[in-house]
C-alpha cells in the first residue's frame, strides 16, 4: 500500500466517523423541542457543508497522481480540521 492509499483510507475512515456523528445530531434534532430544532438544523447544515468540502478534497486526492497528492495535503488537512472542529463544537453544544 502506498503512502497515498494509506492516507486516503485514514481520511475515509474519519469522514465515516464524522458522518455518523452528524446522523446522531440529526436524530436528536428530530426529537428536540421546536425552538431547539432550528438551532440543531442550522448546525447540521453547517456540518454538511464542511463535510461536502472534505468529500471534494478527498475526491481530488483520489484523482491526484502519486507525486501531486503531497502538495494537496495542506488543503486537505485544513478541510479535515474545519470539519473535525465543527463536529466537536456541535457535540459539545448539543451532545
Properties at a glance:
mainly alpha, 0% strand, 95 residues
Mean pLDDT: 89
Hey, roughly how much beta strand do the residues contain?
under 5%
* Quaternary structure classification: single chain
The 3D shape can be described as elongated
User: Radius of gyration, Cα only, in angstroms?
Assistant: 15 Å
Low-pLDDT segments: none
Helix content: over 70%
User: What is the number of strand segments?
Assistant: 0
| Number of self-contained structural domains | 1
- In whole angstroms, the N-to-C terminal distance is 37 Å
Main sheet, how many strands, which sense, barrel?
A: none
SSE order, one letter for each helix or strand:
HHH
Class of secondary structure makeup: mainly alpha
The helix count comes to 3
Keywords: Coiled coil
Protein name: Coiled coil domain-containing protein
Coiled coil: 1-64
Amino acid at each position: 500500500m502506498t503512502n497515498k492509499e494509506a492516507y486516503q483510507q485514514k481520511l475515509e475512515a474519519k469522514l465515516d466517523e464524522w458522518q455518523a456523528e452528524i446522523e446522531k445530531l440529526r436524530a436528536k434534532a428530530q426529537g428536540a423541542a421546536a425552538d431547539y430544532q432550528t438551532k440543531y438544523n442550522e448546525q447540521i447544515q453547517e456540518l454538511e457543508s464542511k463535510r461536502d468540502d472534505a468529500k471534494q478534497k478527498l475526491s481530488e486526492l483520489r484523482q491526484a497522481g502519486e507525486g501531486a497528492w503531497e502538495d494537496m495535503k495542506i488543503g486537505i488537512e485544513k478541510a479535515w480540521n474545519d470539519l473535525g472542529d465543527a463536529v466537536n463544537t456541535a457535540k459539545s453544544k448539543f451532545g
